[in-house]
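Appendix B: complex inputs.
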Amino acid sequence: MFKAIVSADTLRTTLDSVSVLVDECKIHLNEEGLAIRAVDPANVGMVDLELDAAAFESYEADGGLIGVSLARLEDIAGMADAGQLVQLELDEETRKLHIQIDGLEYTLALIDPDSIRQEPDLPDLDLPARIVIEGADIDRAVRAADMVSDHIALGVDEGDEQFYVDAEGDTDDVHLELGRADLIDLEAGDAHSLFSLDYLKDMNKAIPKDGEVAVDLGEEFPVKMHFEIAEGLGQVTFMLAPRIQSE
Amino acid sequence: MFKAIVSADTLRTTLDSVSVLVDECKIHLNEEGLAIRAVDPANVGMVDLELDAAAFESYEADGGLIGVSLARLEDIAGMADAGQLVQLELDEETRKLHIQIDGLEYTLALIDPDSIRQEPDLPDLDLPARIVIEGADIDRAVRAADMVSDHIALGVDEGDEQFYVDAEGDTDDVHLELGRADLIDLEAGDAHSLFSLDYLKDMNKAIPKDGEVAVDLGEEFPVKMHFEIAEGLGQVTFMLAPRIQSE
Amino acid sequence: MFKAIVSADTLRTTLDSVSVLVDECKIHLNEEGLAIRAVDPANVGMVDLELDAAAFESYEADGGLIGVSLARLEDIAGMADAGQLVQLELDEETRKLHIQIDGLEYTLALIDPDSIRQEPDLPDLDLPARIVIEGADIDRAVRAADMVSDHIALGVDEGDEQFYVDAEGDTDDVHLELGRADLIDLEAGDAHSLFSLDYLKDMNKAIPKDGEVAVDLGEEFPVKMHFEIAEGLGQVTFMLAPRIQSE
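Resulting structure:
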């Protein structure tokens, strides 16, 4: 069984964090909250999301698994005003999700979870560098890099205690350096990896501009980005595989 | 003769109520105000509009008839700021309408009324149910139904004293029930009819979200929707023919 | 050498005044400020712009000449917030412009000035009429004319002391008359010329709606429009060649 009430804002933020990578996903309806893991079709970008039961107005679940179309659910959540509550209830018989918003009842056909791409294991990497940075700074770096290139290098210089972003275009370059004073936190360690800007742009859409993001980096290793949603009651991790350096 | 001054807001609201159904229309310039009746090319949706002389800053007319392109008139009215006055004067000789907005003079060629589709008679139906509802609730129902289907059922359950909206898609459904407490008024009588959502979406664009709409319904009968414009000095009626139920 | 700091607003306004006519331009880095002159590929519209050194937070230059892509520079300037400062520094060796916005460094490859269309001489015309008008009134006239035609006549009637705008379409006409009381200033002299609306629409985009524009007109002569940018520390002149009257 699954029966929950959640604010439209929290529901939308949750769905947006996953829909930047995939169109459909499996949602684990655990007793302690929702859990979603998904990887994009090219196996380059992954998301791992948990939304605690406490992020809901009310929440009851006993460990089921459902498959959903994210675009459909986002459309429905979009019908609600910012502060409005959305009521979700699973009909186990018909495998439909009943969604109520202020008298309006939407019956959503679920997708067979077995027909959805398998959930990835997010590898437990021991990455040498971690920075904690404002979401707005990631946004700025991604938008600037996008003006000149389709890939972006992220790195940490252990000696200089600098986090840097590099994008090299055919004629123009973009460079951003943030020292300890510009960052919320820095655990220095040499790191440098090249990433596809398309993926980072998609992930950037879901990263709250006014929140903190912890970024783990290595030498030609994936980047992991952790941030909170739902006032700390939800946790999202994005992982992005590096591109092979062309030099 | 025809000579009038009207606020840009009132003019725009008037034109928008008709342009959702047709591109051109005849305007009756009666002594007591303007009158427009029009039906869409498929004979499915009709509009009947009256704008009293009192809705104008000044108004003089003696019963003429003109044909206009609504898009042209809307473009011109769109040049004015919200509070600005629009001066209209018919030149009987040239069959042109002179429109002045703060020194700017626009000369609009009229259309021969005989070349415009004939005006419909809005049948005087004796419909068993009437609800009075907020325009915002119609908007909500139409937008929700649009997510799943291209048609929508509107009905009243006399016994339960409920107005309901149903839209059934291939996989998902939308249902909305509003009881006496959710409505401004309810005259219960059994009613249920299916309508094309495309037409209702167009009509919805012209319905003021913050105003009242009186909706008359029957069993497989047209729906009539009445609302006021121009602070009560204008009356609009939309009529929409039902679709054949496919069950 | 060239090294300057300027507010993002001032930089954007400057670039926009030129980019409405051309994609690339030469910028003269004089000791007393920047100077740009450019003509569109069809030799119909010209711009002459000067931005005084005093419009910058700091400014050092010794008479160099650079060629730039306006779209690129506008994109970069668009990364800054309204109040933010943009630091510009020319690297003479590499012929690149280093642009810094709050830690973000952009390296822009310059264009060989010899590859950019030659700068025009703006002829020193002795035009018989000058009006000074609000930018907002030019905007209104251009938008109204655009509804009916692709050309626009601007003129002054010396006897009536009127500035007028005429646009004649296939069926509809637009006419605007502004007398001495509606204008900021009027030096009457008979003038009447026809212009391409496409060019005037582009120039209108760069004309500040809340500022004054001095418009010089003659009989079948080019129009000159002068306005200030950067709080009076920059001057822009647009010149537009007339179209042959088709009557």
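Chain B is about 15% helix and 45% strand.
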